[in-house]
Amino acid sequence: MIDMRIAAAVGLAGLVALPFLLPSYFLHIMIEVLLLGLIYTGAFMGIGAYTSALLWNLYGVSPWLGIPAGMALAVLLALVIGYPCFHLRIVGHYFALVTLALGQVVALLIIAGRDITGGSLGMTPRAVGTSVLAFQFQDRTLFYFIALALWFAVLGVRHWASFGMRRAALEAIGEDETAAEAAGINVLREKLRVFMISAAITGAGGSVFAQYIMYINPETVSGVGVSLQIVFAAIAGGMYSALGPTVGALLTLALTEWLRVLFGTNFVGAANTIYGVLLILFIIFMPRGILGVAERLLERRARAVPAA
Description:
By secondary structure, the protein is mainly alpha-helical. Helix content is about 80%, strand content about 0%. It has helices spanning about 1-20, 25-35, 40-60, 65-85, 90-110, 115, 140-160, 165-175, 175-180, 185-215, 220, 225-235, 245-265, 270-285, 290-305.
């Protein structure tokens, strides 16, 4: 227990010191890693990003209010889509296809509303320079700490959602929904609760991402490409670990930057092709992701030491 506390303290100190040690480019990558580690579905990312940006551009509503509005709209969409899906027992790969299709529908709606959203050309939140009210900062260090605070808040929410009886209920649902219902668990309510929490978190991540990048278009926040990256990050990092999506986001962005340097514009679509191939390999050979494999190795080592 003491060793874990020391490791946590060292890790926290490292995260706080990171922006003062990294060059600007690598700090930019770390901010994206923290934000993309919060994002679960392209559709809700697009909803959050465009809601806050449009409210600011059209009505002058501060992103501090636009971000909660984007979260609320994402939660509403999650309720509208999640309730019939969970009620009709659409689960597993079929539900993943629903969320993937939902992201494309949101992207098409953004393109259709080109007079307001800028369509496929995208849009830029109205820039006013450094302004707390506009959630615009020239110093990336401030954005890093904002992203870090949001990341810690989400870890807290995940811990709360998987604590005590809630965790037992979710594990029972994951094993066998029929048996969970027979044990008195309201499967529909529990799954809908998790889905709506995920939508709120993703909406917040999308809104902050839009304010940081200061440019959004349907493909970067809600298209098939970004949805594939999100799925790849979750599976590669480890779906059963709280830090899995963050590790997956780090791997995804590192791979993206490496491919950009390697191919440039000579091989358009290389990233998505490689993501697809690696996704298949992870599903077959490493279904629990990188952290899942690491945890298994640590458990084996821990068992081997007493035996020795």
